[in-house]
Design goal:
The protein is α/β, with parallel strands linked by helices. It folds into 2 domains: about 170 residues, Rossmann fold; about 150 residues, Rossmann fold (3-Layer(aba) Sandwich). It contains 10 helices and 16 strands. A 7-stranded mixed β-sheet has the order 12-9-8-13-14-15-16, sandwiched between helices. The longest helix is centred in the first third of the chain and has 17 residues. It is globular, with a radius of gyration of 20 Å. The mean pLDDT is about 90.
Length: about 325
């Protein structure tokens, strides 16, 4: 096995390698003055099972397109140099939100990205919490592995809820299945019923509307869950609605903390007690600054490392996927 970690996701990659008790294989990355770049392994990959880790969130240093190209080119050169198999570990998979046509002549970018991975010889793609798992699985013709983070969130939710009644809440109807599965996971662990709710959201030409609110949150600890936080506007809108209806505490949970410009309002609002994300995206990827005091980070290295261990030894990964029985 060879595990390569591209520079933009170095901390997470090193943690995964430590979980596997293997060294990170050396590689070279060079950027040229005209904007081109190259990356290559510095050890032989011939006959090896190669794992390449790179998260694809754009930031102030490198765009999502730069990171995607670098990852694709690195996979291609490993294929050209005789790798036996190549697995792309992409904790945050860019363009997964653009999975269907919502306007006339819209691109279906998720499918195009899948074709790019296939074209360079990728055998398997591992990711965490894509926007729509069915679209992800159908877009790729190579093997896909969608790791589930619900079990990582459960102990954090139980600690934060304390003795308050617990409500899992979706900020829009599209995320109801995600919230429902988290609710069921919590109920299985706690042995008692967990509340559920959702809020209506419609977006057209970047204008958000919809006021329907379903669920009784009065006196409860509300946990709003989504796949990602970009500017945090959707989460903050839902948090305010929960507070107006008597929620005792409101916590925001997401797998991917993109935290693009505008997210400061989420952190500064008294409506939100805490924001919990994983380290699938380096929190300094936008500004290079330290995480806000309101953010709590849940590490995913153990989950990714265990998936790699089992895949490499041809063992079952079913309990890591979060599939329904």
């Amino acid at each position: 096995m060879r595990m390569f970690v591209l520079n933009d996701t170095n901390d997470l990659g090193v943690a995964v390698a430590e979980m596997l008790s293997i060294p990170v294989a050396p590689h070279e990355e060079r950027d040229f003055k005209d904007g081109e770049h190259k990356a290559r392994p510095l050890v032989s990959v011939r006959g090896k099972d190669v794992y390449v880790l790179q998260s694809l969130a754009g930031g102030s240093v490198a765009s999502v397109n730069d990171k995607l190209c670098k990852l694709l080119f690195f996979i291609a050169t490993c294929r050209d140099n005789g790798a036996s198999s190549i697995t792309a570990i992409v904790p945050y998979l860019a363009y997964s939100r653009k999975d269907r046509q919502t306007k006339s002549r819209d691109p279906v970018t998720t499918r195009y990205v899948a074709r790019l991975f296939e074209a360079v010889g990728t055998d398997r793609v591992i990711t965490l919490e894509v926007h729509n798992i069915a679209v992800f699985q159908n877009a790729f013709r190579c093997q896909t592995v969608h790791l589930d983070v619900r079990k990582l969130f459960v102990p954090v939710i139980r600690r934060l809820a304390k003795e308050l009644p617990l409500i899992v809440f979706s900020p829009d109807s599209g995320g109801m299945k995600r919230a429902q599965l988290l609710k069921e996971t919590l109920e299985a662990v706690q042995g008692k019923e967990v509340g559920f709710g959702f809020m209506e959201k419609r977006r057209s030409r970047n204008v958000v509307s919809g006021e329907l609110f379903a669920g009784d949150v009065k006196g409860s600890a509300v946990f709003i869950v989504d796949d990602m936080i970009s500017t945090g506007g959707t989460m903050l809108r839902t948090a305010h609605a929960c507070r107006e209806r008597g929620a005792k505490a409101v916590y925001v949970f997401a797998t991917h903390g993109l935290f693009n410009p505008g997210c400061e309002a989420l952190f500064n609002s008294p409506a939100v007690n805490r924001v919990v994300v994983t380290d699938s995206v380096p929190l300094s990827h936008q500004t290079g600054s330290e995480p806000h005091a309101k953010i709590e980070i849940v590490p995913v290295a153990a989950l990714i490392g265990e998936a790699i261990r089992r895949l490499h030894s041809n063992k079952s990964i079913t309990d890591l996927l979060g599939d329904e029985d």
